[in-house]
Structures are given as structure tokens and as C-alpha cells.
Give the backbone structure.
Amino acid sequence: MRFLREGQRLNQVEKWKLERHPLDVREAVLEVYSREGVEAIERVPGEHERLKWVGIYPQNQGGNNFMQRIKVPGGRLTPEQAQVIGRIARDFARGPEPNPHFGNNFLDITTRQDIQMHWIQIEEVPEIWRRLEEVGMTTVQACGDSARNVLCCPVSGLDREEAFDAYPAAQAITAYFVGNREYANLPRKFKMSVTGCLEDCAQAEINDIGMLPARLPDGTLGFNVRVGGGLGDGPRMASDIDVFVLPEEAVEIARGIAQLYGELGNRENRWINRLRYLVQELGPEGFREELEKRVGIPLRPAGEDLTRRYRGDHVGVHAQKEDGLYYVGLNVPVGRMSGEQFEEAGRLAGEYGRDIRLATDQNLIITGVPEERLDELLAEPLLRRYSPDPGPFERGVVACTGSEFCRFAIVETKIRALEWAREMDRRFGDEIGQEAVRMHFSGCSASCAQPQIADVGFRGETAKKGDRIVEGVDIGLGGSLGRDAAFIDWVEGSRPAEDVPEALARIFERFKRERRGDERFHEWARRVRNAELRDTLRGTSVPVVGVQKGK
Amino acid sequence: MAGFDIRELMNDIEEAPGKVWFWDLEKAVIDPGRCVQCGACVAACPSDSIGIAEDDLPKLVKMCTGCSLCWDFCPRGGMRHEATWKLTGNNGAAAAANGLGRVHESYTARVKEDIPGVQDGGVVSALLIALLEAGEIDGALVARESAEEPWKGEAFLARTPEEVREAAGSFYNQTLALGHLDLEGYELPPNPRIAVVGTPCEVEGIKAMQARPWKWGSSRVDAVVLTVALLCTKSFNYEKLMLEELRDRRGVDLEEVGRVDVIRGKLIVQDRGGETILEEPIKDFHGAALKGCDECADFLGHAADISVGSVGSADGYSSVLIRTEEGLAAFEHVKDRLELRPLDKPKSLYKLDALDKKVALKSLKRPFDPDAPLFIDYEDHLESYAGTDRAPVDHEAVRY
């Protein structure tokens, strides 16, 4: 791949990637590091960076403690694959001390339909890979500056309303990029999403590439292409580049965009070099022009956009396309389960249904359950623990890894988010008037928990309390995807974490009082002026209903 | 288009009140030339996202997580430097007035047994050697001459008396000492005890961080058991002072220089034989000083355990101000190796302190108040500094 951006000096990571291809790290893990230990990794400059290409990150505990991410394209797992993953967590994800809430040997479902587990030691990795590869799974490019897991609507192929099943396109894109050395060195991570559903379940607006269902005037179905979405500390809604592609052209368009990004993306400053910055620089039209030079297909103008709404989750019992079959969405608060429980989910999918699907809200779905077996499945102990009928706050809670393991997170997230959700369910669950209230907690500005698209977003921060620095959060309100997609405003900054439940209670009390008809929380939060919301969070004023959004 | 401002074009999100990122620190402190290169931001960053650039200024090396701590502990940013003086038991108001601040004991001192290369009385070198020999510390973060650039000080952890001797003497550039508190590359016992010898601003940063415990990434703030502040009215930019002013403008061959000193208002450069090759009023070199040093009112190192410098004592002697219990305990180890007497000329200290404060009060664009809270919000800083000659820059400087 040529680097065509003018006048840039390569940053250190770029130099490391050129010194040795990052995909070569797989061999090094198998042949050297797993035998000689972590010291051997330390001896190779840039190797911690390259390890990301096989889905391995160092934990903040350092030493021989790693996070291993497993790619699950489109979030789809066979019962056998799910059981293998569960067993891996059971056998290897063991910390020296149990987490006070989640115990030990757990795994996390991520907002990219991946699986992560912690406390992996480098010498265990070959065996983990062997087990995964045996059932057709990989950790290659789960992380690093390359194509990450391709998102797809978790109920693709099952949804009665969907325009078409986009999973084959997601699979084909995955197959093209995994292990592809030419496209495995992009300026930064590269996130793609594909869906044929009408509910933006693959979150096209916040991915580098979003392919959404569309129809040409002659009835031909395919995708409209959006580019340059993302969150982090530079959130941007994806741009419509006025391109329609057929499902069989999805790989070529993804390849062309990857080539464009690889050639023109910023390889100097890693903090402003995701694809969205390039789209911002070129503009949607300029981007389309550059893309046209690089693809072997004509770029047709966009078709009719078929997306109708944003659904956000698949919790509950839902009828599938096929008569008599149902999928059951289990609520896995903050995405964390024990390996044993995940294995059990795989067993249940095998016994009662067809497969397991992972969703971007960190939940899990068992598909293909015949109507006559539903009650039996619903009576299983696992479904009492991870209910398909949770309270609205537990249903909507999402949290990143947090400071328990992540080297960037400023605060603990998982336990806090779960406790806050449970407390809000106790206090407001029956009165809040919507199925899910989405509270997303990211431990830092990286937005791994997608706080900007939540009803209530938390971003880890430090806070001052008397003479102490304490764990705190910025609080944002009013985000959503879908027809009225908009990011939250960060209404309040640096609130000590221990003050958050009461601040939330004041906000939800006020929402209950002021809600108009079926108004949803994010709609109300956008209607009320930020200054007033801030006062309510702080408990410093008598609420006054604002009439329009104000800064 | 380049630079972090591109983010603001991509959405209309209202940012959280008080949110500060590293690039805000860049705009307010680094880009306007106010950085004093103490390294506090590097030390404070819990994700080790701040490193040291080739221009000897802090730079982002990993993702900024928006934790605000680099701002909070910057003595030209969010840390009210004079509010750190209370941390060592100073009465803020008294320290703000002319005087030495809180001092348990004060001396004019010199080593009994000469240590080659020491700056004045050799007190700091002798103290560190004594502490290392007694097993009281495992290392001392000091400045030593760079192997590549003559007369440029670089941070170095001396772990043996011999290494202390090798590093004897002063340099007049900042080393971003706190940026080296990760102690990386040095073999040390599991829970090392470290002394830090540095400028008052470096000591302020350490004391402030120790008073507000947090997870400092790889920085071993907890390992610092003793701080020694070198009396300081200003530090210099190495390139400007040593290369431009001395080497290029005045023809000084830096390879031949044996000693550089600032004493009685003069910069004195001697060759290896001790002959003076340059003696000139220090004010002639003010253009090479760090602009941010003007805003510092802490010539005397009020936050330190011990303050040491040449002012206030006869030539060849050091003035020693012991400010804390830790300082007293440490000094006990070296007392018998020193000639000690009451301070020769305390009035010289008062006088220079008064002058230093006068410059600081003129340069500072915010109220000077040792009794005020330690942290200054970014918005409050903007309110004080906007429209001044020290205002945050609004251009987007990209140093990556």
C-alpha cells in the first residue's frame, strides 16, 4: 500500500509496522513468546503494538496478564463455538483474586459483537487458538490498525421486517480482510457494519463504513453506503456519500474505502487519524471522487433508504420469519458472564434452538426456538439470571471494561453501571414508561461503551471532593441513533461517582413529571435546556421546563 | 487541515463544564511558551499518554483520556503553585510575605572533604552520598551532563555515591525530571525510596501529587521520600543559552567549559583549569530564560523538605533551609560531614525572594494567593489570561 498523504512524518507505530508486518506476530507468539515468556516480547520494540493484530492487549496489571479478544463476525456463533469460548474462559481466564461482583473466569460481550476475556497468559495462547481454530474462529485482527469485527444485525435472516439477509455480505467482507496483508496496515482501526434490517441494528452512523439497506427505483435491493462515523473524543455521524452497491459488491466497496484510507489517511498523528477525520477533510463529495478512482465498479447514486428506526436491542421473545420459531434475547447487564454460563448458553442453543447471536448492546440471543419449547427454555436457570424480561434500566445498561483491566480507563465501570441500573430499576423501573433506558458507561474518552448514543452517557473522569481526587464521571443526556440520531450533550462534568445515583434520581423524577405523552427520555432531554438539566443533576434549582434546546 | 480543532467541526456536542484535554494544556501553557519543563504533566498522566518530545517539551504519545490531571498538576496551568507551600506546613500568608517561610533549621554549609565538581558548598552531593551509604534511599533523581550535548543537563537516577559524584554540579536547563519518575531502566528494589533534587516547580508538583493520591500510571510518585529544592529564580532553554548565546554569539567552546555558575547577578563560565572565560550580567541572558519562570514566586522552594542554593552564603558555601521533619531526619546523616554555621546573609535571601515575587506578581495574570485552593479551573485560567501576552494560543500547533 502506498502512503500518498503529503508532508507527513510517520509516527512511531507506523515505523514499527514497517519494520515487521504486524501479522507476523502470530508466528512469534506460537514459536517464541509462548515458549520463552513475556520477557521475550519486551525485547522486541513495538511488539506490544503488533500483538493487537492477534487480538491481544496488555492489561493494566502488566506482566504476563493479557486480554484476548475473539472475533465473532456479525455476532453469530454456533452452539459448539459458544461452548468452546465458554470453556476457554473457564480454563484460562482466571485472575489471582475474584472480582467482588463477577467472581472469576468470566468473559465480556462487547459492543462490537466480540468476546473478550482477561488474565490470559502468553503461554496459554497457542492452546486457546488451537481450540478456536478447530471450530472455525479467529482472533486475527480483532484489534490493531486494520479491519475489526464486521457488525451485522444480530437477527439477520430471522427478522420478519428485514429487507434482506445481509449476513453473507458481512461474512464475505470478513473473509476478504482477515489475514490480508495488503490491507492489514491501515492508519488506525477500521470499523465496518452491514445490515439489511430496517432498524440500524449494526449502528451504521457510528462506524467507519456503514452499509444500510436501500432500494433502487427498479426494485433492486442493496446497500446505501455511509462513511466516517465514530465516537471517541471526536464523535461524528457518518456521511452519506451517495453510493448504492449490490450485496455482491460489498467487498469491493469496502476494499476500495480501505485502500483510500490506507493511502490518504493520516499516519503522523494517531489521535486524529480515524477514517472520519479523512472524510471531514475531503468532504463527502471529495471522498466519493477519491473512492471512484480506486474501485472496479461504477458508483451508482444512492437508492431509497429503507431504514425506519433504531431498535437498540433484541431483548425478549420474538417471532422469527419462519412460522413457529422464535428468538429469545437474554439481557446480560454490562455484557459480563462466567465462562460456565456462556457454555450453558451454547448448550441451551443446541438443545432448544439453532444458534447464539451477540448484539451491540452486549446482550445475547438464542435463535430458532420452536414455540412448543419456549416455556421450557424460559424456565432454565440461566434465563432467570439473564432475563428476557428485565427492568428498563438493567436492559439498557452498557459498560466498557473499565479500570479493572484497561490501561486507559480512569474509573471502574462494570460494577458501578450495574449497581446504578439496578438502583434506578428499584426506584423508577415501573414508572419510567419505556422498555429500556440506555445508560452507557465508558471509563474514559475512548467511548468503548458508546456513551454518546445513550439516553444517559457516562464518561470516566477525575473529580475533586474536598482535598481528595476521586473517581468521577462526565454525564451526558439525550443521545440516540435512528431517524432522530443525535449525540448527547455532556451536560455535567466531573461529578464524583458516589453522587451519581442521586443525580440520576433527580433527573428521572423530573422526566416523569414533565414527560409529554409517549415522549421518550432522549426526546425530553433534548427539549430541556442543558443549563436546567445541569441544575437538576446538581440539585441546585427548582426545575423549570424549557421550550427549546439551548447551550 | 491539521490539528485537534478538526474535532470541533465534526459535531455540535456541548462539552462538559470544566473538561480539559492535553491539547488544552498545549494551547494554554506549551504553545505560548509558558511551560517550565518540570515534567509534572508527564508524571501525573495515569495512562502514560504524555511523553517528552525532541524539543524537550511534553507531547502526547498515546490517547488522551480526558482525565484533566495534566492540567491539574501543571504549575503554569491548573496547579496554583503557591498553594503547595502549605503542604509542608507553611503558613500561606507568612510564606507570601518576605521571609524564608517555614524553616526548622538554617545553615551556611560546606563539605569538610572536597567533592570534585560540586557547585557551591557541595551540600547536596554530600547529603545524597550520606543517605545512600546509610541505606536511607535507593537512588536520587538528579541532573547530569548529557552524553551527546555538552553542558546540557539530563535527568539521571544516581544509585551509588560514585554516580552522585559523577553528577555533581549544576546545569541551567530543565530536565523534565518528573517525566523520569517511572524510574524505567534502573534496577531498584521492589519498593524503592527516592530523593529528588530539582527546581522548586518540580518539588511543588511532587508534593501536590503526594497530597492528592491517585494512580499515576508508571510514575513512582509514592517512591519519593525526600525533596531537595535548588534555589531558583529562572531556568533556561538549553539551545538559547548554551548554543545561541554562549557558543554562537560569544564564541565559547563548550567542550572546554569546566564550570557554569550564576552568582551575584552574573553568569560566570570557567574553563577546565578554573580560569574565567566569561562573566556577564545575567540580565543579558534573560531572552534565553523560560518565559514561564517569570510567573513563579517560589525562589525559596517552600514546598521542599530542604532548600539549597548559593544565595545568602559566602562563595564556596551553600545556604541550607531545612523545612520539614523528613528534611531534618535526612540532614542528620550528613551533618558530621559538613562545616556548619548560621546563615551568612539571610537578607540576601529576603532581597532576592522579594525581587522574584515582584516579577512573579507582575507576570502572573491571576491573583496570587497561597491560601486559595490548590486547583484552578481551566475556565478561571482563561478568564485571567485571555487577552494578555500570556493568553492561550488560538492557532492549532501540531507537534506530532
Notes: Residues 543-551 of chain A have pLDDT under 50 and may be disordered. Residues 410 and 512 of chain A are 32 Å apart (CA to CA). The two ends of chain A are 45 Å apart (CA to CA).
